[in-house]
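can u do me a favor
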């Protein structure tokens, strides 16, 4: 039956089940129990019959069917009966009438009285168990949050007791089974979070999920407070820590079955000890784990900056060796173990081939040792063939990791004259076999059958020259002129030879090349023969082939690439290759974005070169000779320009594909744009074709395909003494950022015989020269010392360890010349003579400063007393250093000083004095 107000009468089990279903769907549910007469249409209604009770108890009783017409008296009119009697009467009524619920015929006495009923003040239980989130939220609560953590000795008393009143957050009143009230300390369970390491505070009841987590928290606490905490027990069953002797700090933790984790059982957090500056827990591994993210952001952090960061965070200092170990541990965690990564090469090669189909990546091992590996991405190979010129620069650079090695690289030139990496390989050493394997693999990987259109640029290595001639027989092989000059400068130094060498290499016509070679022959015949022995097709523009449209004389493309991967070369082998791949992936994306800002039809760098040639065309004039044929005259000669064939007799246009200064003068005459005749290899479309491919990233190493390759160890490496070098050794000819000019190449001469074979120290005439110098210097010293001897008064001085200085006037000298009556003075005739200058005072008297030594027999006079006091004072003081020498700079400049001007009194004069009147002039002072 449904009422109009939304109420529903509970009449049978079906209604009870409906009530249970409604409870889970709604937040609030109200149940009304009426104890007076109720007249509904149904007639018979269940009710709880309680008679004589002034207040309803907080229990539920079984419902009994009321008889029609029965009226109950008010509960307050009858005497109160016990609950047991009420239950017995209800059971008798139910059995006598034979009426019951639809299914149950007996009354369940266990269900009648329950100590688990909800009291009025148990709101927390209602919020926990009767919530709108339902059963899912109750299941999500962990045991740690549902359980209450009390002292272990009172757990048995707490079981089965009711919480009566909560006085504070730390204490609770508990009623046990016997009805006694007790106040117990309530411990709140706190879950330790590893991210809370900045401020570690232990509490009783703090839960740690593992013993490692607890040890890490204790270590963090020790370092933050700089205390000497040590372990008394440290195993998987318990941890007991104590501070230094006399300090009350104590911690005890052990596993707890209620939480299945470590729980702090006892803790005293007071410290009476002093903080330490040196803590044993301050280890290199801790520093590595603590500053791991900072090293990940800045792997080039210096030890000085690292030490400053540690000092600011912990107020402690670490030794340099500890800082180095910490940085090494951190970089090992970031980049991986160098030894273990050699076995990952098999899986990494498979991942490269999977993520970038068409790419080439393979590894070779010999007798279980790493031999070499080769990697070339499909996007790089297709970009080279689609938009780049047939020019490849090859060079090698050293790996700077633990096991060393050499990285061989092949680099091309993109349409904007920038580097375009093609392939790279890691080998054990750079030798003829390594270059032969690398160039053969590169040729097969690019599917090159005809090597005639290709040009190889490298340094002048004997083994490399033979390999290129054997594997790329028809390709043009150019040498880097900078490396050629380094070998040339070992025998012929100076800017004259250097400039002439570069002038020969830059000559674009054979006539100019012969002229410059003759000038070199005039400078030095041997230098001319040295350059004549090198094939000019390998280093002179006058003999270059104009097919590749490249006039490069340097192998800078490889040098730039080596600098580009400098950070990667310091990493382990797999991490190195991954980083290079990521750099190329980002580079391709950035180059594609650059095309959006490009304007015109040619690339930006090519436009700058063209603008430079246009500026140089100011000094040239063009005259038409025929259709599309012009004559250009300038300061450096006459040239012919054919616009139809895109040629100039200077050959600069044919070599580079960019109009030269002579062609620009012709286009200025014809009022046409020179950009229209720039070779298509420099167009923006070619640039987009070169970087149009996409390099796909690699997945996480955990999901790499497992190749199960044979175990591979790193190559044999002999560790050198000392720290490994991180910087390249610069050549003496390279420019250095300094304040002094290098003395490299200067020929030294002997200052005695002017010979270039030895210096002054090894000169055979050194003894004769020294004797001649002494003989020459002796007369000069005598002439210089002669005038000074006139004013010197010889005084005999007795050598004493600590002489006494006495200043005597002329009269006193005369008195001392006479024999004293009471004081005996003894002179030493063997004493050294010392001359002192005479100083004249304003009164004209002369004072002689002399140093005398006396043997005092009787200390009766004042002079004797003063001498004794002075002697005692000098013995207690440190020896006084001698006078400073005269300034040599002033001595050399004394002769150059101007004559001294006449000094004036410095009086202020109101009117200038006439120059003609000499009597008005002030006298000299």
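np, heres the sequence
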């Amino acid at each position: 039956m449904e009422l109009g107000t939304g109420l529903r009468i509970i009449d049978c089990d079906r209604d009870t089940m409906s009530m249970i279903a409604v409870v889970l769907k709604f937040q609030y549910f109200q149940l009304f129990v009426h104890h007076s007469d109720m007249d509904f249409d149904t007639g018979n209604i269940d009710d709880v019959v309680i008679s004589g009770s002034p207040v309803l108890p907080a229990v539920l009783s079984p419902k009994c069917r009321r008889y029609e017409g029965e009226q109950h008296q008010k509960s307050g009119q009858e005497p109160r009966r016990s609950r047991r009697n009420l239950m017995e009467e209800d059971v008798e009524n139910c059995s006598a009438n034979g009426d019951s619920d639809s299914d149950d015929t007996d009354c369940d006495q266990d269900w009648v009285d329950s100590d688990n009923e909800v009291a009025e003040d148990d709101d927390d239980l209602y919020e926990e168990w009767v919530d709108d989130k339902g059963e899912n939220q109750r299941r999500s609560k962990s045991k740690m949050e549902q359980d209450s953590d009390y002292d272990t000795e009172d757990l048995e008393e707490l079981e089965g007791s009711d919480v009566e009143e909560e006085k504070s957050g730390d204490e609770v009143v508990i009623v046990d089974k016997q009805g006694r009230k007790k106040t117990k300390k309530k411990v709140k369970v706190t879950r330790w979070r590893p991210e809370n390491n900045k401020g570690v505070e232990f509490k009783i009841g703090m839960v740690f999920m593992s013993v490692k987590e607890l040890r890490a928290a204790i270590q963090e606490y020790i370092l933050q407070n700089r205390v000497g905490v040590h372990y008394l027990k440290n195993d998987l069953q318990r941890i007991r820590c104590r501070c230094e002797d006399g300090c009350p700090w104590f911690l005890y933790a052990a596993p707890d079955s209620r939480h299945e984790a470590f729980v702090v059982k006892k803790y005293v957090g007071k410290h009476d000890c002093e903080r330490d500056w040196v803590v044993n827990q301050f280890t290199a591994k801790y520093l590595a784990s603590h500053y791991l993210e900072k090293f990940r952001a800045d792997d080039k952090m210096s030890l000085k900056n690292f030490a400053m960061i540690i000092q600011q965070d912990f107020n402690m200092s670490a030794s340099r060796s500890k800082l180095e170990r910490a940085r090494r541990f951190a970089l090992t965690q970031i980049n991986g173990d160098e030894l273990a990564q050699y076995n990952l090469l098999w899986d990494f090669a498979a991942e490269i081939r999977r993520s970038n189909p068409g790419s080439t990546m393979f590894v070779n091992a010999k007798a279980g040792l790493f031999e070499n590996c080769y990697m070339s991405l499909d996007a790089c190979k297709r970009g080279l063939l689609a938009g780049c010129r047939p020019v490849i620069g090859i060079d090698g650079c050293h790996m700077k990791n633990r096991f060393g090695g050499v990285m061989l690289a092949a680099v091309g030139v993109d349409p904007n004259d920038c580097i375009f990496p093609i392939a790279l390989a890691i080998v054990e050493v750079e030798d003829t076999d390594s270059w032969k394997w690398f160039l053969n693999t590169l040729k097969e990987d690019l599917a090159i059958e005809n090597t005639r259109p290709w040009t190889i640029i490298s340094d002048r290595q004997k083994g490399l020259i033979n390999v290129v001639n054997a594997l790329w027989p028809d390709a043009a092989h150019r040498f880097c002129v900078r490396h050629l000059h380094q070998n040339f400068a070992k025998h012929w130094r100076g800017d004259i030879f250097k400039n002439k060498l570069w002038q020969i290499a830059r000559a674009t016509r054979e006539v100019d090349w012969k002229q410059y070679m003759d000038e070199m022959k005039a400078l030095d015949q041997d230098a001319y023969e040295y350059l004549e022995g090198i094939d000019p097709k390998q280093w002179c523009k006058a003999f270059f082939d104009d097919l590749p449209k490249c006039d490069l004389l340097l192998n800078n493309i490889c040098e730039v690439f080596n600098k580009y991967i400098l950070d990667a070369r310091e990493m382990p082998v797999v991490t190195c290759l991954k980083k290079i791949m990521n750099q190329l992936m980002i580079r391709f994306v950035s180059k594609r974005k650059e095309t959006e800002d490009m304007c015109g039809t040619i690339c930006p760098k090519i436009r700058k070169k063209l603008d430079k040639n246009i500026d140089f065309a100011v000094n040239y004039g063009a005259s038409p000779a025929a259709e599309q044929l012009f004559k250009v005259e300038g300061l450096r000669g006459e040239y012919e320009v054919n616009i139809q064939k895109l040629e100039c007799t200077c050959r600069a246009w044919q070599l580079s594909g960019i109009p030269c200064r002579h062609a620009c003068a012709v286009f200025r005459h014809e009022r046409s744009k020179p950009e229209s005749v720039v070779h298509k290899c420099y167009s923006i479309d070619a640039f987009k074709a070169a970087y149009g491919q996409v390099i796909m990233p690699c997945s996480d190493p955990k999901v790499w395909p497992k190749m199960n390759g044979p175990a591979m160890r790193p190559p044999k490496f002999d560790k050198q003494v000392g720290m490994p070098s991180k910087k390249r050794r610069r050549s003496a000819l390279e420019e250095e950022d300094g304040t002094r000019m290098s003395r490299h190449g200067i020929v030294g001469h002997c200052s005695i015989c002017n010979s270039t074979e030895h210096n002054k120290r090894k000169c055979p005439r050194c003894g004769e020269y020294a004797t001649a110098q002494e003989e020459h210097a002796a007369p000069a010293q005598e002439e210089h010392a002669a005038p000074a001897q006139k004013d010197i008064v010889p005084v005999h001085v007795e050598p004493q360890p600590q002489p006494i200085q006495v200043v005597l006037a002329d009269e006193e000298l005369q008195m001392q010349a006479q024999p004293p009556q009471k004081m005996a003075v003894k002179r030493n005739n063997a004493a050294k003579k010392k001359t002192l200058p005479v100083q004249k005072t304003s009164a004209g008297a002369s004072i002689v400063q002399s140093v005398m030594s006396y043997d005092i027999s009787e200390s009766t006079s004042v002079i004797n007393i003063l001498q004794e006091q002075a002697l005692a004072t000098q013995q207690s003081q440190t020896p006084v250093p001698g006078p400073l020498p005269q300034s040599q700079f002033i001595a050399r400049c004394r002769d150059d000083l101007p004559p001294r001007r006449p000094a004036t009194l410095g009086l202020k004069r109101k009117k200038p004095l006439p120059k003609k009147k000499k009597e008005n002039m002030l006298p000299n002072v």
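Residues 573-597 form the longest helix (25 residues). hope that helps!!
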